[in-house]
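can u do me a favor
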C-alpha cells in the first residue's frame, strides 16, 4: 500500500462547484488524516447510474463533523472526458482528474476491480475498512458512512458456536451482522424486508408478525416445516386457506406443539395447540415463476396429473412458492394452478431450507419430514401420474433401470430422437453434443463419455 496520499492519488483532485458550474482543483494533502472511500464508477454504466444518487443522498445527509473524518473519491472508468464531466455534476465529492488515466488503472489493478460500481473504503493509514461499500450503503445508507468515519465496517460477524448455523448471505437488519449466525427471523409483511438475529429479536419491537427461518440440514416434520405459513392463498383468489385446514381433515388430538410464528411484540412465546394426525401424508413444494419458460412448460403437465390424483387420493398436496418478479405476475401465474400458494414474500424461507438449485423445482416431503424427492420435476417427467400416486402413500419412487431412463430435455444429435431413452453419451470435445446408445456404437470422431442418471444424492450435494 502507498505510504502517502500523494503516492496513491497524485498532487491534485477535482470537484464540481454547482454555483458556477465549474470544476475546481484541490490539493490532495488536504485529505490527510481522513478515511477515504474510493468510488469506481462510470457514466455509461446503468448500475452505476442507479447507485450514484443513493450514495449522493446518503453523503448529503451526514453532518459536517462526519465529513471532516471521511471523504469519497470518484475514480472514473468513463470512456471520454465529456462523460466524466457530466457524471461529476451528480457527485458532491471529489474525483481523481480524468486526465490521470494511468493512475486510475493502477488503482483498479491494486484493488482488483473486475466490475463496477465498486466502493472501497480505507482508513487514514491505508488499511482496508471494507471492500463491500456498495452493499453497506444499500443496507445502511448514512449509518454506513458514520461507521466508516469511525474506521469501522458497517457489517460485522462473530465466531459460530457449536451447532449454530451460519447464513452466508443473511444479514441482520438491526445490528448488521453478516453472515448472520444462529436463529434468523423474517417479517411476513410483503412491504417489509426485515431480517433479525436472535439477539436483536429480543431488543426490537416490530409492527408486523415475524417468523423463524428453518435451519437447513435439520430435520423437521412436515407440519413444523409449514408452520411458518399463517395461511395459504387459493388459486381462485377467493380469500385465504388456513394452513391447519390441510391437516385437520379426519383429525384426532395427539400432543401439544409450539408455533414458529413470533407475535407482534417480537418475542417468542410458547403457545399450546392441538396437533393432529394429518390426512396429508406428503406435500410437494413447487418452486416456479411465470417468467421461466421451463416452468411454463412443466406447470400444465403437473396440474393435469395433480387434478387426476386428487380425485382419488387426498393424502398428497402441492403448494406453490413463487420466484416471480412482482406480485401481479405471481397472482396471474397462481391462478393457472389447481393447488394453493404460499404468500409471495415467504418463498425465501423455504428456498433457504431446501437449498434450492434452480427452477422449476418440486421437492416432496412426507409428513414425518423425510425428503421423498428433491427432483420431483424429473420424477414427474419420468413416471407421469405414478409419481404423485406413489408420493400420496409417502413412498419414494424406484429409479427406472438404465435402459428405460428418459433424458427428457436431451435429443440425440445423431438420429434426432427426443427424448433419449437409456444410455446417453456426451462428447468431451464438442459442446452440447449428445448421442443415444445406438448412435454412440456407430462411433464419433472424439472421445465419448457415458453420462450417469442423477439421483437425489446428486441434487443434495450441489
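np, heres the sequence
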Amino acid at each position: 500500500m502507498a505510504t502517502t496520499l500523494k503516492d496513491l492519488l497524485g498532487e491534485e483532485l477535482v470537484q464540481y462547484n454547482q454555483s458556477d458550474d465549474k470544476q475546481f482543483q484541490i490539493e490532495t494533502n488536504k485529505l490527510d488524516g481522513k478515511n477515504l472511500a474510493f468510488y469506481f464508477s462510470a457514466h455509461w454504466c446503468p448500475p452505476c447510474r442507479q447507485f450514484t444518487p443513493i450514495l449522493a443522498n446518503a453523503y448529503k445527509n451526514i453532518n459536517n463533523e462526519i465529513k471532516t473524518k471521511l471523504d469519497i473519491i470518484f475514480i472514473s472508468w468513463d470512456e471520454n472526458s465529456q462523460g466524466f464531466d457530466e457524471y461529476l455534476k451528480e457527485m458532491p465529492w471529489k474525483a481523481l482528474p480524468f486526465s490521470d488515466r494511468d493512475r486510475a488503472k493502477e488503482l483498479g489493478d491494486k484493488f482488483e476491480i473486475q466490475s463496477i460500481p465498486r466502493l472501497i473504503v480505507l482508513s487514514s493509514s491505508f488499511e482496508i475498512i471494507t471492500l463491500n461499500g456498495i452493499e453497506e450503503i444499500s443496507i445502511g445508507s448514512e449509518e454506513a458512512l458514520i461507521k466508516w468515519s469511525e474506521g469501522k465496517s458497517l457489517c460485522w460477524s462473530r465466531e459460530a458456536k457449536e451447532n449454530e448455523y451460519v447464513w452466508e448471505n443473511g444479514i441482520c437488519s438491526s445490528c448488521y451482522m453478516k453472515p448472520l449466525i444462529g436463529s434468523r427471523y423474517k417479517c411476513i409483511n410483503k412491504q417489509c424486508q426485515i431480517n433479525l438475529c436472535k439477539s436483536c429479536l429480543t431488543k426490537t419491537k416490530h409492527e408486523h408478525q415475524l417468523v423463524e427461518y428453518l435451519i437447513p440440514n435439520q430435520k423437521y416434520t412436515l407440519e413444523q416445516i409449514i408452520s411458518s405459513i399463517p395461511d395459504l392463498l387459493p388459486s381462485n383468489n377467493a380469500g385465504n386457506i388456513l394452513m391447519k385446514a390441510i391437516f385437520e381433515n379426519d383429525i384426532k388430538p395427539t400432543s401439544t406443539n409450539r408455533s414458529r410464528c413470533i407475535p407482534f411484540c417480537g418475542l417468542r412465546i410458547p403457545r399450546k395447540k392441538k396437533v393432529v394426525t394429518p390426512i396429508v401424508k406428503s406435500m410437494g413444494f413447487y418452486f416456479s415463476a411465470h417468467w421461466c419458460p421451463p416452468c411454463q412448460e412443466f406447470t400444465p403437465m403437473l396440474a393435469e396429473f395433480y387434478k387426476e390424483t386428487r380425485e382419488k387420493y387426498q393424502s398428497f398436496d402441492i403448494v406453490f412458492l413463487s420466484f416471480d418478479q412482482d406480485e401481479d405476475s405471481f397472482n396471474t401465474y397462481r391462478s393457472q394452478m389447481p393447488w394453493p400458494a404460499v404468500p409471495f414474500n415467504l418463498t425465501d424461507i423455504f428456498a433457504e431450507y431446501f437449498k434450492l438449485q434452480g427452477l422449476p423445482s418440486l421437492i416432496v416431503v412426507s409428513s414425518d419430514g423425510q425428503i421423498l424427492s428433491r427432483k420431483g420435476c424429473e420424477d414427474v417427467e419420468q413416471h407421469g401420474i405414478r409419481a404423485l400416486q406413489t408420493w400420496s402413500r409417502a413412498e419414494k419412487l424406484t429409479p427406472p433401470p438404465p435402459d428405460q431412463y428418459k433424458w427428457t430435455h436431451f435429443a440425440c444429435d445423431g438420429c434426432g430422437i427426443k427424448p433419449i431413452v437409456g444410455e446417453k453419451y456426451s462428447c468431451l470435445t464438442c459442446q452440447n453434443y449428445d448421442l443415444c446408445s445406438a448412435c454412440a456404437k456407430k462411433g464419433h470422431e472424439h472421445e465419448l463419455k457415458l453420462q450417469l442418471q442423477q439421483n437425489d444424492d446428486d441434487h443434495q450435494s450441489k
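Confidence is low (pLDDT under 50) at residues 249-277. hope that helps!!
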